[in-house]
Amino acid sequence: MTQSLIFDMDGTLFQTDRILERSLEDTFDHLRSLNEWDAETPIDQYREIMGVPLPQVWETLLPHHSMKMREYTDTYFLDRLIVNIKSGQGALYPHVEEVFRFLKENECSIYIASNGLKPYLKAIVDYYHLDQWVTETFSIQQIDSLHKSELVGKIIEKYNLTSGVVVGDRLSDIRAAKDNGFLAIGCHFDFAKEEELRQADRVIFDLKELETLVPLWSN
């Protein structure tokens, strides 16, 4: 029986913190140059909400700014993220390529479901050639609700998946798994929170652990 694995991107496959601070600093420097910001860059505040859709990010970080300015900031930030990805400033987590190779050799299907936007995800997939293993990458932009559970449901429906696991580091990933009847694998990585991971079916500290777990689930 083949197994289906749906991975989150930020904080699960991609070490977003490698480019996060740089890109956010670039963005708020730009806002300062426009006289739209006069305080320190809220990097710690962003880390607290890491993983939510970007529109919610700017509602939190720029609560007193207009919708137009939030949208402008969102576009600028996305551009800076992509520039930093393409210049090699980011990195995958250890063993991503090795684990993906193992999964494909064991006839597993791999998908990505992310709260990231399409151009951002494409930049990562293209730079690291993830499409040689990943069947399809899904962005939160593809659904109106901006709920990870619905995005995972879209993958399950499109590919007629009957069982599988969702691998991610945040509560939205865990809930997406449970809402769709999949197992929830929590990644105890950079942005993970203990109270959220307690709701997962299994917690891993290294993606390499999947190589021992997948054969058990596939029986």
Structure in words:
This protein is of the alpha/beta class and 219 residues long. The chain has 2 domains: 140 residues, HAD superfamily/HAD-like (Rossmann fold, 3-Layer(aba) Sandwich); 70 residues. It contains 10 helices and 6 strands. It has a 6-stranded parallel β-sheet with strand order 3-2-1-4-5-6, sandwiched between helices. β4, α8 and β5 form a beta-alpha-beta unit. The longest helix is centred in the middle third of the chain and has 20 residues. It is globular, with a radius of gyration of 17 Å. The model has no long low-confidence stretch (mean pLDDT 93).
Task: Tell me the domain tally.
Answer: 2
Task: Look at the helices and sheets and give the structural class.
Answer: alpha/beta
Strand order of the largest sheet: 3-2-1-4-5-6
The CATH class designation of the largest domain is Alpha Beta
Give the distance, in angstroms, between the N- and C-terminal Cα atoms.
7 Å
- SSE run: EHHHHHEHEHEHEHEH
* Contiguous runs where pLDDT drops below 50 for at least 5 residues: none
Helix content: 40-55%
Strand content: 5-15%
Largest sheet: 6 strands, parallel
Q: Identify the CATH architecture of the largest domain.
A: 3-Layer(aba) Sandwich
How many extended strands? 6
Oligomerization category of the chains in this entry: single chain
The average pLDDT value, as a whole number, equals 93
CATH topology of the largest domain: Rossmann fold
